[in-house]
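Box S2. Input/output pair 1.
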Amino acid sequence: MDRTNLIFEGREKLIYSTDEPGVVRIYYKDDATAFGGIKRAVIKGKGAYNARIAAIVFSTLEEAGIKTHFIKSVSDREHLCRKISIVPIQVIVRNRLAGSTARMLGVANGTKIPNTVYELRYNDDELCDPMINEHHAVALGLVSYEEMEEMMAVAARVNQVLKALFSKAGIELVDFKMEFGRSLEGELIVSDEISPDNARLWDEETGEILDKDRFRHDLSDVCASYKNVMDRLLKI
């Protein structure tokens, strides 16, 4: 794998500089990780499916007036994106209680709720991404209260847009993680990715799991499920 002009390597993506100021190239790897990187595997084709899904998601958000770092796809697994300074906060949006939150609260996985739950986590691998609130975020100097309010408003709008998008594909958006970055102009924009790697996606009719939980819990057919999501979105 060519690493010329490599800026950063994450668990599942590579970020390269380009000849254009303020623009980076993001390569989606086939690596899969779970449980803080404890479980690892290479799943052939996963990166290409995630790149295509993320491109559809970001394009849909841009069409809805939500600014993201995405510029365009340049190959089956590469995006050109705006260069950003990442805000080390994960915003997790839950339309059901599932995963770690269901376990924490002692309820069944997938419990339906009358509202939307928003969680914040400090994006720090060494600390295992601890849950925080807006006051912690401001105290740590990560954001201002005004920026936090803006991020939460954008997260609500993103949830609204993406629930509608996935529903058209017969998929329920159970929950998802999103991140923000500051553009070179200092504007907060949606960054990273939204794909089956960081969103729970269930078939609306059968409840079949179509996301990374298939890898986490050894449910098999991981790549086939990602392709299923991609194919459904492409048909909309």
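Box S3. Input/output pair 2.
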Amino acid sequence: MLLLNREDIKKVFTMQDAIEADKKAFELVVEGKCEAPLRTNIQAPKHEGCFLFMPAYVEEMDTASLKIINIFPHNIDHGIPSSPAQVLLIDGTTGVVSAVLDGTYVTQMRTGAASGAAFDVLAKKDCRIGALIGTGGQAATQLEAMLAARKLEEVRVYDLNPERTQAFAEQMQKELASYGARILAAKSSDEAIEDADLLITVTPSSKPVFDGTKVKQGATISCVGAYQHHMQEMDPAILPRASKIYFDSKDAVLSESGDILIPLEQGIITEKDFTGDIGQVIKGELIGRENDDEIIVFETVGVATQDLVAAKTIYDRAVKAGVGTEWK
């Protein structure tokens, strides 16, 4: 069994690799080629957290996986990841666990890459300004995915904690300098989203974190954080303005995400307003963006297929490169 930590993974897997892996995963989802039951969610109310178990199996890849990911939002106050995780990669021909990967980093990469894939497929080609709301454990890879998908001049970052926002912006300016964009700390959500072509929200908020009436025409929005019914980052005002609404998986979103479930219950939208899954766009079954004025919304809660494809890609490259630690 191969043990692969964060540094091992970095040696063989880039954000662009993660975006391509997610595209493949989203195709597998719409093709029905991945057996991926909805995740098991065990609540830990004492700590405002939860334990999540996400299995997947792709027969044509002879691969299965299980991700254990535990969401504890207050971890960020203690300097540890808010979503610690491990991914077990399983040989589909023998049932033997072939690798254990740092699931925190795999999750950060594949979750960021979901936004990157959405922007790559759905955003207009000429994008200059990005906005990121949230600076928690998933934020860095969301920011990198945005930069990987489009050549941006500036990204504005906003979080409720001004000191953390400033520190995050400064750190990201250093770490992501090769992309050539200015990373700036915004003083408000309105300031962050003003004239933004790309917008990502990645928070555990239970109320909208931006004003949907102030989003510019032509923007593409990826909402990432609302993985439970009570969570709602997205301002529902954006939904009637949107030309198209896409999901990573409609079934998964409608089982979990308050961003969509709450507006449905309130009658702001109906299921007839949904365009479809992004995998259908990637496969050419649905039309993506048709002009530069369309506002397009992408809602993602994450599917286990993403973990499986990312983990298998990482494992194959690590074996070829002689990276990782053998546990015998």
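Caption for Box S3: The longest helix spans residues 103-122. The chain is about 35% helix and 25% strand.
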